[in-house]
Write a structure and sequence with these properties.
mainly alpha, Ferritin, two-stranded parallel sheet, 2 strands, DPS_DNA-bd_CS, Ferritin-like, Ferritin-like_SF, DNA polymerase sliding clamp subunit
């Protein structure tokens, strides 16, 4: 059942129905960012092996920035007249992806899986930018976040890239497959 997200009021220059569409779009971005924040902390806590400290310390600034991104999205939802659903129940009920699949693992295994997580989040942001349409404020917010997310994925991929410029995780389609390929490399 689809929930009507049309607000009673919104920002000047945007119709209420268009604001409702933007609110729905941003709710999924909020869920993705909250999920990414928790996944990054999970990796931070469960990474082991010779690259432990490099990955452990690389992840925390990403966690902080992703939390800020979630806050920005939630505040945009509120500005549009919507309700920012930031509860775990809402995230789990409305997300369109599975939970992160890797537990305690070698740093490169986690990074292989995390590369796929970032790919999914980035693809979602790109789609949301296209859907934002004429709302330049929402589009600008998403574009800024896209730049940071792509940089974070680059940091992850730098650990997975071979001297020849290919990713050690190859064409992995699942987190488990990417983790296994990454572990083979290390």
């Amino acid at each position: 059942m689809t929930q009507d997200l049309t607000p009673n009021y919104t920002v000047p220059g945007i119709e209420r129905e268009a604001a409702g569409r933007l609110i729905g779009l941003l709710r999924l971005r909020l869920h993705a960012l909250n999920d990414l924040h928790l996944t990054l902390k999970h990796v931070h806590w469960n990474v082991v092996g010779p690259h432990f400290i490099a990955v452990h310390e690389m992840i925390d600034p990403q966690v902080d920035r992703v939390r800020d991104m979630a806050d920005d999205v939630a505040e945009r939802i509120a500005a549009l007249g919507g309700v920012a659903q930031g509860t775990p129940g809402a995230l789990v009920a409305e997300r369109t992806w599975d939970d992160y699949a890797i537990g305690r693992a070698d740093a490169i295994a986690h990074l292989g899986a995390l590369d796929l997580v970032y790919t999914g989040v980035i693809e979602g942001v790109r789609a949301a930018i296209k859907e934002a349409g004429d709302d330049t404020a929402t589009e600008d917010l998403l574009i800024e976040q896209l730049r940071d997310l792509e940089q974070f994925q680059w940091f992850v991929r730098a650990h997975l890239e071979t001297a020849g410029g290919t990713l050690a995780t190859g064409q992995a389609r699942t987190e488990e497959e990417a983790a296994a390929k990454g572990a083979e490399r290390s």
